[in-house]
Design a protein that fits this description.
The strands form four sheets. The chain has a four-stranded parallel sheet, with helices on both faces. Strands 7-11-10 form a three-stranded parallel sheet, covered by helices on one side. A two-stranded antiparallel sheet has the order 1-4. The relative contact order is 0.13. The protein is elongated. The chain is built from 16 helices and eleven strands. By secondary structure, it is of the alpha/beta class. The termini are far apart. Helix 4 crosses helix 6 and helix 13 crosses helix 14.
Amino acid sequence: MEKNKFMRSVRLREADCQGCINCIKYCPTQAIRVHNGKAHIIDKFCIDCGRCIRYCPHHAKIAVYDPLSVINNFKYTVALPAPSLYAQYNNLTNVDIILNALLKLGFDDVYEVSAAAELVSEASRKYIKEHPDGVPFISSACPSVIRLIRVKFPSLISRLLPIKAPVEVAAEIARARAMEKTGLKSEEIGIIFISPCPSKVSYAKSPLGIEKSNIDNVIAIKDVYPLLLPHMKHDESQLKPLSHSGRIGIGWSNAGGEVAGLLTENYLAADGIVNILRVLEELEDEKLHGLTFVELSACNGGCVGGTLTVENAYIATTKTKRLIRYQPVSKNHLAENPEVSNLFWADDVEYEPVFRLGNTFKESLKMMNDVEKLASRFPGLDCGSCGAPTCQTLAEDIVRGDATPNDCIYVLRANIADLSRKIAALTQDKNTDEGISPGDSELLDSYIRTLTAELASFGVPERPKNR
């Protein structure tokens, strides 16, 4: 079966949707429309940033992920905790407290994503040094950023650092070690990622840069968080020494954590999808100079700001900094990890022109002219009352065949007012001594039918006829 190019984990819970237009105003890729009182998410536009989840006042946007019970589907399971998991707990001084609690929860083993992050940092330093002509490179750790570049910034695809994300490297190492330790087949081992965001759920099912992910299931930090609390032992004499990551790896959870591992001063680190859009536009326009690396995290504050976490992103950032204060810089090196055979992408990320109007340049040019003509009819208020985020977007939807000009309440009101004036004028003629001509009578009937249709399109029922 062909891989779904536009897999998404952010879904609409239709029963809870009230048809408000909050979500369409906050979506960075204009992937949401509101019609007939319900929101609709357009698969090919959505990048799973989760912003609509955060801003929906009715909690109608949700992330779909796996339940913890998936650990029962395998003979042996390995938990991959994201470093942002550690930042959810108060006064945590030892990561082993969390890792041991995961074993108590039912996992057979754990492997830290932060440990793999240190390997990715080392590989990134080496790659950037060997490819000075390719700078500035853009981080490829955030799936939402890759998907955004893939659909909206094709000229920047070549700037993506072609190295697997830490979670994928962690999954590969965890599987190889589990197979060697247990003698089980690969399909009998479950690699379970504990994720801070929905974009990594979609990544596990439909990855970019590789054919298939080693991650079997993804569960949410917010689901695991309360279950770990009863198992957390703060008596360090009772803990197994399981942690193998230092300051660089754990620091990846915060905005700026990845660039800290690159040991470079010529960088830009941006977090929050709105800020990222601005940075990508400036990169595309070649307004940013002298950079070696650009770190982009779709969530505010970095991964600690993911919608599947429980702690405030900025408090979590402080907790992370407190946790790593006395950690060694790094505990992992490529030479000491023979399971890491290849850290690089096997497939190229290809441009997906989902926002292009036509199939050819000539067709697109004609359709753009139609869009401009339509947009000039609209008031330019970008009010969202039509169900689209902007007047320009509504015009594009009309040209695609997904909307009509009457979806704009201002156009509809003007049409109704014009028809009402014409009907009033003809009706006035009808009340004179001369009466109304047969031609004008037909015209009046036509106006009334059109007015009825216009009102019906706005949800106004037709007035019942007198019996």
